[in-house]
Design a protein that fits this description.
With 616 residues, the protein is mostly helical. It has 26 helices and two strands. The chain has helices at residues 5-8, 144-156, 160-174, 178-197, 202-222, 229-239, 243-256, 261-273, 277-290, 295-307, 312-325, 331-338, 344-357, 362-374, 380-393, 398-410, 414-426, 434-445, 457-469, 476-489, 492-505, 510-522, 531-543, 551-567, 570-580, 595-615; strands at residues 586-587, 590-591. The longest helix is centred in the middle third of the chain and has 21 residues, at 202-222. It is extended, with a radius of gyration of 35 Å. It starts with a helix and ends with a helix.
């Protein structure tokens, strides 16, 4: 789905190419093999899947196993076949079909004999009147297409609600039309898909689908052949888990309008889903022919052809064209590189073809840099040159900065590495930059890495701020930043700022809540009382919520000893010291005794004892 494209764009790529969190390792291979004589990697042909009618190449009668039928070597006839096997087709065969004609003059012909009278001739059937020619569709009213294009762009960005509002406003201004109603139906269905992806209320999702269906009915009542109507209806049926109904709607549409590229694309999508590669090839190839700028159709057509074991030079050409048409999409470049897994120079030559076809194809630069850096004899100088060129093409692309960060880190240029990883994080989506954030955390805080002692403070602050902002559900980045400012930077206000961010991100982490409270207790003593609610929160996580006691819990007990000792509440000090003296206390699996808590407890007990003696 379009709504999931952003998320899936980075899947299956080498770790060094990812803009954020590496979700695949460098050994990942494409789901299909590129060799013309190789079978699909799963060992499964389309005919082996339930409901498929495509024969396996190895099972074709009259051919040795493994030989590729001629029909599989070239693009299929993209014209749709009649669904009725006895339809008016020159090669139709069936109980009511004519025998195929032959031009052979020696072919036997049935003739009446003398002993067999000729059958009387039946009267000729009246001629079938031609189907009425539909008048050309009236052009779309000025402003309508602009409103529809704007709505589609917003839907692609996940802003379906805004698209609906804009389309309603356009309808109020321009009047009701079938095109606007179809566009509204698409927007409602996109909103339903978003709701389903977010596991929102099922009744709400069904209501949105019903809204989409109503707009389809309204549009087709105005114009039964409205462009996009069949596609919207088919998508609704697919959403309702009725693929057979969706296929029927689309095939009916193509019988009347064989050049409906969107209908071909949906059928290609459906064929791909069930691994019917021949049908996927037919429909995706036709969709790409109808719209040569449709890189997605070209990509999917090439994937289908590769499953059909078309020669690798054709596969390469298909992926090169798709990559040039989709410069911001990693998938065609990944599949192109996988054609030559052990042939470095061929791989680099193919990637260069993409760049030559579209100098803005940033993923081709990234793969080129990755190959020259990691395959064969590493050439880090050339990799740097390629990535510098990529920066000029896409100055804010997170993966470009991530790879530059890797090169700088490898060269020991810590400050440059921090700058590049920071740029990666800043230009990534929230929660989509784990690898770069971890790299910053290591470079700035790990003593084994030098804790970034030479990194300028302004560069450090920017890095910490980026990691905290783009990982709102992970408090460790703020916690480590707070720790550095507490123990190294000695800036307790800054330390508090990051500690508070860590608690906001992870409010149920004992360590983070305790560490934040500690700043008030030990360093910002004019606000010492603000530590108490946080200490109470840590106790509640264990005593009430049932968490296993960890370092934060045991430290909180010790810190409460200090807090109440300074307040002069000796009984509370003794109580907390007794709990802290638990001999089973462990932190991260190691024994965690506290001599300081015992000292507080002994001193408080003496105060209580002295008070009793004085009272006597």
């Amino acid at each position: 789905m379009q709504t999931s494209r952003r998320r899936s764009a980075l899947l299956g790529l080498p770790l060094a190419l990812l803009s954020a969190c590496g979700r695949a390792d460098p050994g990942d291979v494409p789901p299909i093999t590129a060799r013309p004589d190789a079978a699909p990697t799963t060992g499964e042909h389309a005919s082996e899947r339930e409901g498929s009618t495509v024969p396996s190449p190895a099972a074709t009668p009259g051919r040795p196993a493994g030989e590729i039928p001629e029909a599989s070597r070239a693009p299929r006839d993209p014209s749709p076949r009649p669904s009725d096997p006895n339809a008016d087709h020159p090669n139709a065969v069936g109980p009511n079909a004519d025998v195929p004609k032959t031009d052979d003059p020696n072919a036997s012909k049935s003739k009446p004999t003398a002993s067999e009278p000729s059958a009387p001739k039946e009267p000729a059937a009246p001629p079938v009147p031609p189907a009425p020619v539909k008048p050309p569709r009236a052009p779309i009213a000025p402003g309508v297409q602009e409103a529809i294009d704007s709505a589609r762009a917003k839907i692609a960005e996940g802003l379906a609600s805004e698209a609906i509002s804009d389309l309603r406003a356009a309808e109020e201004k321009l009047g009701t039309s079938a095109d606007l109603r179809i566009a509204q139906g698409r927007a409602f269905l996109a909103l339903a898909e978003l709701g389903l992806a977010r596991s929102e209320d099922g009744f709400l999702v069904k209501g949105l689908v019903a809204d989409a269906h109503m707009r389809w009915k309204q549009a087709t009542a105005i114009d039964a052949d409205v462009p996009g109507g069949a596609v919207l209806r088919a998508r609704i049926l697919r959403f309702e888990e009725n693929p057979a109904g969706a296929k029927e709607v689309l095939e009916r549409r193509l019988r009347e309008f064989p050049d409906d590229g969107e209908a071909h694309a949906i059928l290609g999508e459906m064929a791909t889903a069930v691994r019917n590669w021949e049908q996927a090839d037919v429909h995706w190839t036709r969709a790409a022919a109808l719209d040569p700028s449709d890189g997605r159709a070209r990509l999917q057509a090439t994937i289908a052809k590769q499953w059909l074991r078309v020669p690798s030079d054709q596969i390469e050409a298909g992926y090169v064209a798709a990559a040039a048409l989709l410069p911001d999409d990693a998938e065609p470049v990944r599949l192109l590189a996988a054609i030559y897994p052990k042939e470095r120079e061929k791989k680099l030559a193919a990637l260069q073809k993409v760049i030559d076809g579209n100098p803005k194809a940033v993923w081709a630069y990234l793969w080129t840099a990755h190959v020259v850096r990691t395959e064969g004899t590493p050439d880090t100088k050339r990799a740097k040159e390629v990535l510098d060129a990529a920066v000029k093409v896409a100055p804010k692309h997170p993966a470009v900065h991530y790879n530059l960060g890797l090169l700088a880190d490898q060269a020991g240029a810590t400050t440059d590495a921090v700058r590049e990883f920071t740029a990666c994080v800043e230009n990534s989506a929230e929660g989509d930059c784990r690898e770069a954030s971890d790299a910053l955390d290591r470079l700035l805080n790990d003593p084994a890495a030098g804790s970034g002692k030479d990194v300028p403070l302004s560069v450090r602050v920017r890095a910490y701020d980026a990691a905290v902002a783009k990982n709102p559900g992970d408090g460790r980045y703020g916690n480590n930043a707070g720790l550095w400012y507490r123990d190294v930077g000695r800036d307790y206000e800054q330390s508090l700022r990051y500690y508070l961010a860590s608690v906001n991100a992870s409010p149920n982490e004992q360590d983070y809540v305790n560490d934040c409270a500690l700043i008030y207790l030990f360093h910002l003593t004019d606000r010492k009382e603000l530590s108490l609610p946080m200490f109470d929160r840590v106790l509640a996580l264990v005593d009430d919520d049932g968490q296993e006691p960890g370092r934060g819990y045991w430290d909180t007990l010790e810190n409460l000893c200090k807090y109440w000792f300074e307040k002069g509440d000796w009984a509370k000090v003794v109580a907390f010291a007794k709990k802290r003296a638990d001999p089973t206390a462990k932190a991260y699996g190691n024994p965690y005794p506290s001599l300081r808590a015992a000292q507080y407890g002994n001193a408080a007990q003496k105060k209580l004892d002295d008070a009793k003696k004085g009272g006597k």
